[in-house]
């Protein structure tokens, strides 16, 4: 045997760089299920299932192509339960001439391997992580010398470079960005476009085995195991993409920011988990959306909105992560220190928007972007919850959560904990926003129109308290000028009453 290739759980691509050009019959591939990875965050039971089942299917796929595969299962006797421990055991078993890996997505994992390599003297032949369209180096040169890093500028360059939605040198439709058309509130149920659920897959034999394993080894894992219906192979992930383009993409643009109590997906794709595991390729997702527009099947604002998330935001936050790690993870620019309330786990709160969102997450290991940003994220921001605790929660509870994407979104976008590395201002909002964009408030114990009194919506008084508490920090930000003036315009007694309510609430968030 000449080469040993170690493949990590989020590198499950048929075109993986580390495997490229190798002769299967002389290559051994190592895939390892280890406790260190299964327990470094409070993972949702369904997240454990999707990763482990996809790894087992990928191992079978490799065997079918003639590779020799060592798949170390969680239950195997002798499992050292760390990635580098398993690598050492495989080297001792096989004594390969070369050791190859694709660069890990997360700083923590790369650090472990680099330290191990230094200690052991074993050289790893690193291959680029080509699960992304912009390399770390290209992002760093784009960022170099820019005073501000703005997604929109990066996105335009990516559109030009990859020739997506371009008519020669100009953007299709004459505009780069149709975001302003993508903020429609949700119509009442009878007036809504047809419901579009992500494609569901009944667990096959391999997945059912993994579900039993997870139930047995992780009995206290967060979330519900039953109802698992994600794809665990590239073939099925592609079917899910095609299904999304047909059934939901036409309305993705219009209702991208809307939320519904009875539908946690609305017109979103649920493909992030497939992209992040390597089952789908970002370019194929963008091209599928572009083609649907060129075929006249979806409007331009939908195709552009979807492409912007993948070609723009996904690549951009990953670039930010690698540019600023490891210091980035320690950010707490707004000096927030409250512990995470219990209802983030249980969903037991009178605030219906939060109760429903947590319930969705428990059932599906999923919430869409606006639920993550404007419900769970916004509450944590305005209540002043400690970023580390919030980030740990986000890293665990979503099936698609890996630090390279979770951290900039949570710490940077939702919590402004990085002090504005890429967000132009904190995404803080009152209950009025949630009332406008969802039907959560109907039937809530609280009143989104009230900011004072027994039934006042907590988002309202916490929002104004947040603005007042951080006024000095935010005064130099021109985008906060209007909000600060609005605060100053209010009667001092009203502000005082809201701040007193916020102070009481912040001492007992679980009582809300
Ligand atoms: P759609 O809404 O259908 O969008 C299509 C695709 O665009 C997604 O699959 C995703 O790959 C990409 N995308 C959209 N927005 C973003 C974004 N802001 N950053 C990166 N990619 C994006 N995404 C993750 O993949 N993993 C995470 O751990 C994660 N944590 C988040 C935490 C917070 C606080 C917030 C506000 C956002 C987070 N996101 C994360 C981004 C985004 O919410 C999810 O990618 C999206 O909700 C996934 O659902 P979908 O596939 O239905 O996406
Ligand atoms: Fe959430 Fe306030 Fe609306 Fe209740 S009233 S659902 S707490 S925004």
Please explain how this structure is put together:
The chain is built from 22 helices and seven strands. It has 512 residues and is mainly α. The strands form two sheets. It has a five-stranded parallel β-sheet, sandwiched between helices. Helix 2 packs across helix 7, helix 6 (151-162) crosses helix 12 (300-324) and helix 12 packs across helix 17. The protein is globular. The model has no long low-confidence stretch (mean pLDDT 96). Bound molecules: flavin-adenine dinucleotide and iron/sulfur cluster. Residues 268-272, 275-276, 306, 309-310, 313-314, 317, 368-369, 372-373, 377, 394, 398, 400-401, 405-406, 409-410, 413-414 line the site of flavin-adenine dinucleotide (FAD).
Keywords, please?
512 residues, mainly alpha, two-stranded antiparallel sheet, globular, binds flavin-adenine dinucleotide
How much helical structure, as a percent, in the residues? 40-55%
Q: Give the ligands present.
A: flavin-adenine dinucleotide, iron/sulfur cluster
Low-pLDDT residue intervals, each spanning 5 or more residues: none
Order of helices and strands: EEHHEHEHEHHEEHHHHHHHHHHHHHHHH
The total beta strand count reads 7
User: What would you report as the Rg, rounded to the nearest angstrom?
Assistant: 24 Å
Q: Between the first and last Cα atoms, what is the distance in angstroms? A: 62 Å
Number of separate helices:
22
Strand order of the largest sheet: 3-2-1-4-5
Average pLDDT: 96
Beta-strand percentage range: 5-15%
Main β-sheet description: 5 strands, parallel
Shape annotation: globular
Q: Which structural category do the helix and sheet elements fall into? A: mainly alpha
């Amino acid at each position: 045997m000449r080469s040993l290739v170690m493949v990590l759980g989020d590198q499950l691509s048929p075109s993986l760089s580390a495997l490229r050009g190798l002769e299967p019959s002389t290559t051994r591939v190592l895939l390892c299920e280890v406790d260190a990875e299964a327990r470094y965050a409070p993972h949702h039971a369904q997240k454990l299932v999707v990763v482990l089942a996809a790894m087992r299917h990928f191992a079978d796929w490799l065997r079918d192509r003639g590779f020799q595969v060592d798949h170390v299962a969680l239950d195997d006797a002798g499992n050292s339960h760390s990635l580098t421990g398993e690598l050492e055991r495989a080297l001792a078993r096989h004594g390969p001439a070369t050791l190859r890996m694709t660069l890990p997505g997360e700083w923590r994992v790369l650090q472990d391997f680099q330290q191990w390599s230094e200690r052991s003297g074993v050289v790893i032949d690193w291959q680029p992580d080509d699960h992304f369209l912009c390399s770390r180096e290209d992002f760093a040169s784009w960022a170099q010398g820019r005073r501000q890093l703005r997604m929109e500028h990066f996105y335009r360059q990516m559109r030009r470079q990859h020739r997506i939605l371009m008519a020669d040198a100009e953007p299709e439709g004459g505009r780069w960005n149709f975001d302003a058309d993508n903020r429609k509130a949700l119509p009442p149920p009878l007036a809504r476009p047809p419901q579009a659920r992500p494609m569901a897959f009944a667990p096959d034999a391999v997945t059912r085995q993994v579900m039993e394993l997870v139930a047995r080894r992780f009995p206290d894992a967060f979330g519900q195991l039953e109802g698992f219906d994600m794809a665990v192979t590239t073939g099925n992930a592609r079917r899910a993409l095609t299904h999304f383009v047909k059934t939901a993409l036409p309305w993705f643009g219009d209702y991208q920011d809307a939320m519904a109590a009875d539908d946690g997906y609305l017109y979103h794709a649920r493909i992030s988990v497939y992209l992040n595991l390597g089952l789908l390729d970002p370019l194929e997702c963008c091209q599928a959306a572009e083609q649907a527009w060129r075929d006249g099947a979806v409007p331009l604002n939908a195709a552009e909105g979807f492409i912007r998330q993948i070609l723009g935001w996904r690549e951009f936050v990953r670039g930010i992560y690698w540019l600023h790690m490891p210091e980035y993870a320690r950010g707490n620019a707004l000096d927030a220190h409250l512990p995470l309330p219990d209802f983030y786990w249980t969903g037991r709160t009178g605030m219906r928007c939060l109760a429903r969102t947590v319930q969705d997450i428990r059932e599906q290991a999923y919430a869409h972007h606006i639920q993550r940003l404007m419900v769970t994220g916004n509450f944590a921001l305005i209540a002043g919850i400690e970023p580390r605790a919030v980030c740990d929660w986000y890293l665990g509870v979503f099936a698609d959560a890996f630090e390279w994407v979770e951290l900039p979104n949570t710490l940077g976008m939702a919590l402004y904990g990085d002090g504005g590395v890429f967000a132009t201002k904190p995404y803080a909002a009152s209950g009025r926003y949630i009332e406008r964009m969802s039907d959560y408030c109907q039937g809530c114990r609280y009143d989104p129109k009230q900011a004072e009194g027994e039934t006042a919506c907590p988002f309202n008084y916490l929002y104004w308290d947040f603005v007042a508490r951080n006024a000095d920090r935010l005064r130099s930000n021109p985008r906060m000028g209007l909000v600060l003036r609005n605060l100053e315009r209010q009667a001092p007694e009203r502000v005082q009453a809201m701040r007193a309510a916020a102070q009481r609430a912040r001492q007992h968030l679980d009582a809300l």
